[in-house]
Protein 1
Amino acid sequence: MSEKETPVPSNFIRKIISEDLRNNKNDGRVHTRFPPEPNGYLHIGHAKSICLNFGLAAEYQGNCNLRFDDTNPEKEDTEYVESIKANVRWLGFDWQENEYFASDYFDKLYQFALDLISQGKAYVDSLSAEDIREYRGTLTSPGKPSPYRDRSVEENLSLFEQMRDGKIEEGSAVLRAKIDMASPNINMRDPVIYRIRKARHHRTADKWCIYPMYDFTHCLSDAIEGITHSVCTLEFEDHRALYDWVIDNLDTPSRPYQYEFARLNLDYTVLSKRKLIELVREGHVNGWDDPRMPTIAGIRRRGFTPASIRDFCNRIGVTKSDTRIDISVLENTLREDLDKRAPRAMAVLKPLKVVIENYPESEDEELDAANHPQNPDMGKRKVPFSRVIYIEQDDFMEDAPKKFFRLSLGREVRLRYAYFITCTEVIKNEQDEVIELRCTYDPATKGGNAPDGRKVKGTIHWVSEAHAVKAEVRLYDRLYTEANPEQGGRDSREVLNPASVEILSGALLEPSLALAKVEDHFQFERLGYFCADSKDWDSDKPVFNRAVTLRDTWGKMNR
Ligand code: ATP
Ligand code: MG
């Protein structure tokens, strides 16, 4: 991690760990884990959890495990496992040899379940799923015991074995912990800890047809791995009593503790794998790595850098209160990172032809351009100039107000790194649209300054027609039109932004950009930070994504 990033601010979890270390709890060890379920692609919310867990391990010279919580065979896949690993690595974290799968513990978990049954603390329930729900009661009324609750240990052991052997139909029996049907915490009303699923698992294949539930698996996996601080999001707060109950009622190799923090919520964004899957399956976006997606794959392709994501996670901090983060916080960390690192270049997104009438027809020349205005170490490059150039359509206005500091009829502007030009004539088509400008240039202003000291108000970018490289440039906007797409339980698909991407297929680039490599970043002068697309890039037709505008103008100008 570079020293440029924001120092990690303290938070309540760090305070707990420091206190534990002072008391020599866990023999002074700190061991965390990041436990994704491989049922989808990771998103920026997961990045918060990754930075927190790996960050804590690094800060306290501990370890952080990467553990795949793979107990739902129908939803999980090795494709997701591979993408999760690639995402964590890309973010800059290394789990070394500490890669685990909950499915590696299926034998041990089965033994733990037998132990609970033998202690009379678990039973096989033959109620239907619907009845179990009904018997569970509500927040205001206690549950009532299942008629199967008092089966003998022998009967339970035999039934559980039959479940494992595939002799009982899916949905006809479950294993439940025997805790307290009147508990005010519904999670403690005899939670289901094993269910039958006659489905093939991506790692254990057909070995098992019973699968342990999250609340049983997670705490025991933590205990098996010697996790000291099991950090998760607030929705598991009410599950902590069950976490502790399972650990306290079994002879586990270690005693982990669970701590909860608030999940990341980001404006104009939905962070839930299930909702993101919908967007992909229903074709609202072009796949998991669509640059509009909040997935790690998407924001990477959009042009976010690992350093900017880590910095973002540090800045938002770790608390116990649910808040929504303004998207400008994320975009600003990227601007700050790329402002320092991204070489500058010129590109014209919506070209308007300019003929410089007093520039010799058969000539061209190369002008010096700095790759970074504040950092001479990044060097210079040559930019070709000739009689016909293109400027941005927006940089010309025929009858311009006084405050318009770009080009207009009769006014003079500076062409970046080149000359002063004055517009002398405007050519229009039959629809009265400006299609070409005629200009003159002042050869004495080469490099951008007039020897007589005269000033111009504006500097605009340009590309020489004869040397330009044609490219596709994609500009992105928010995926949703509402800051909280799910407000009041609304289906977020109702507020998808119909104009979340604008594809400009006739953009023109200065020739040096044709040599860009996939995922290279540039500041296109005056336009924003752009990233060479990793999927559709073609040496004949470069494709750039705008990662972020130069300034936070969204909302004011809508782009
Ligand atoms: P989703 O709701 O998006 O499907 P999940 O919680 O089901 O997410 P998991 O794969 O179980 O996904 O998550 C792995 C870890 O990432 C968990 O510890 C979870 O608490 C954490 N996590 C998930 N979403 C967020 C978020 N928005 N902010 C912070 N941490 C998160
Ligand atoms: Mg989950």
Protein 2
Amino acid sequence: MSTTFTLDTSTSRAHPVPEPVRRLTVPSIRGRKKNGETAEPIVMLTAYTARMAQLLDPHCDMLLVGDSLGQVIYGLDTTVRVTLDLMVAHGAAVVRGSYRSVVVVDLPFGTYEASPEQAFESASRVLRETGCAAVKLEGGEVLAPTIAFLVQRGIPVVAHVGLTPQAVNALGGYGARGRSEAEAAKIRADARAVADAGAFAVVIEGVMEPLARQITGELSCPTIGIGASPACDGQVLVVDDMLGMFERVPRFVRRFDDLAARIDTAAASYAGAVRDRSFPGEAELYIPKAKAAG
Ligand code: KIV
């Protein structure tokens, strides 16, 4: 038996791929925004598994292994209990399943806030053990020195400002941010600080639309919005939200499918076929060939 592998020389990947694909790079994403304008918006979705990464990869510029996996995959109530081990396992799966997109892995709560050194330990482990290109961390001015520390040591960082879900206990919920002038000014200062510290992109989550538009106009690096503004340089959604896997649909989510309903129909039809013994059918069985005569 011979198996032909196509070696993807851009990644040394010995998986069969239809044709070698060159992975986008952090500088190419950063360079999408030129003189304050982004001609081609950055397309980002979350992904947590290799198969989903394969399906999303051709359509995306960036795949985010978000700590939202705590809720989406593991049924946790917040992201606060997500561990670095979980992020590493899912990050590696998404890198294995993707060829083109820049893969970014979230640093979970408690793995980077204490000091720049702690952040470097966590981030370097994530890069080493997953093969991803960058990490994302939540926070603004307070985390700017940490972002500078990582970037100066070769770790590309996406920052995350506005509604920062890891701070849910401090914020008291997931309501949109930047309603008051003081809060809006703080979020603007956060965005400026993380961009000045060297983040190559800034996720802006759950803020008043004019604020996200204003920040996007002020930063030289790309902004990626979620519940933010169409003026952002790119958009990100949690893939399961976008596919219609959950009944609850936050205001900022558009469902591009109704996958939960389709899974329900498929599961009901499988259950019916098992119960009425129409599955498995003859075509789904291994039937011994009749012994050759003689
Ligand atoms: O964890 C996540 O999925 C995220 C996105 C919502 C931006 O941080």
